[in-house]
Amino acid sequence: MRFLIGLGIAVLIAAPAAAQGQQDFSKVQITTTKISNNFVALEGQGGRIGVLYGPDGIFMVDSQFAPLSEKIMAAIRMVSDQKIKFLVNTHVHGDHTGGNENFGKAGATIVARPMLKQRLIKPNPPANGGAAPAGAPAAAIPGYVIDERTRMTMDGETIDLIPLPVAHTDGDTAVKFVKNDVLMTGDVFRSLGFPNIDRASGGSLKGMLAAFDTLIAAAGPKTKVLPGHGPITNRAGLIAHKRMALALRDQVTKLIAEGKTQEQIVAAKITNPYEKETGNAAGTGDRFVGQLFAELKASS
Q: CA-CA distance, 218 to 287, in Å (whole number)?
């Protein structure tokens, strides 16, 4: 599927939504990193944002938290005064979709997978019990859904939207900016911390490993790989991440076969050799081992 996007106009974003939970966003600063040509990355609190800009308008990947929308818009306005035409959500988590309502009200067409849309409409109940939160407002809901590889053309760039297997969640999408040679992975790949399989949101180990293969195939020798969280890396970083995940899977499989419990396997700290490689992100190793145990034990 191919789209040719027309010229846009400048807009101002609506006031940010009420603060989410108890988090204090007042001191969060948005930093801008020029990646290449007409593409920048924005970081504040939550997942990394990508911004392609040019005469046809702005193409945005992810939206962080709603209270940061005004600051994010101010950072975008430092590189372009064009209208935000499209906003792609890489997955459903609030640090990537929280600003949807604000950018949707500003005129962006939100693009995502069908299951992501459904999870915004009808969120999961809390893990510790209780009623499910209310669904997202209409302006935050994707207006265009994709479930197959989709190609768009904008600002002289070719943009590939790449649906991924059920990996981090059941609604993951990677985005490749072909001419800029930039690949945004969402949280399927995090260069800070160990993999995170959100099984409650439909993620799976099998899908995660398959998604790594898809990402590796999409990355060339000079591709700048922008993870959902963590330092910008490259194809070699993706390959190393998959190799680590496979090694840990094999170790957990062996320990399960020996009759070890989840607590015993977590206590064995089999992730220690990889802590430095993954940025010493406290707790993410134990979380991943627990996720591996749950999935491998269920299939054993």
A: 28
Tens digits of per-residue pLDDT, 191-232? 999 999 999 999 999 999 999 999 999 999 999 999 999 999
> Is the pTM here over 0.85, yes or no?
yes
Q: Tokens for 185?
A: 């992975």
Strands 150-154 and 39-43: unpaired
**Domains of the chain, residue spans:** 31-241
Instruction: Report whether 51 contacts 37 (CB < 8 A).
Output: no
How many C-beta neighbours within 10 Å does residue 60 have?
Answer: 24
Cα torsion angle, 159, 160, 161, 164, sign: negative
Helices 284-299, 235-257: axis angle to 10 degrees equals 60
Beta bridge partners of 49: 42
Q: Do 141 and 120 form a contact (C-beta atoms < 8 A)?
A: yes
Distance of CA 196 to the CA centre of its chain: 11
Tens digit of each residue's pLDDT (9 = 90 or more) over 59-85: 999 999 999 999 999 999 999 999 999
CA trace torsion 140, 141, 144, 148 (10° rounding): 110
Q: Kindly give, in sequence order, each residue whose CB lies less than 8 Å from that of residue 210, ignoring residues fewer than 6 positions away.
A: 164, 165, 167
Look up residue 144 and give its amino acid.
Y
As a residue count, the chain comes to 300
Bridge partners, residue 194, by sequence = none
C-alpha span between 205 and 199 (Å, rounded): 9
Residue with tokens 């700290």: 269
Sign of CA dihedral 188, 193, 195, 197: negative
Whether residue 296 contacts residue 249, with contact meaning beta carbons closer than 8 Å, is answered with: yes
Asked: is 31-241 a CATH 3.40.718.10 domain? The reply is no
| Start-end of H helices in the chain | 69-77, 94-97, 100-105, 114-121, 205-218, 235-257, 262-267, 284-299
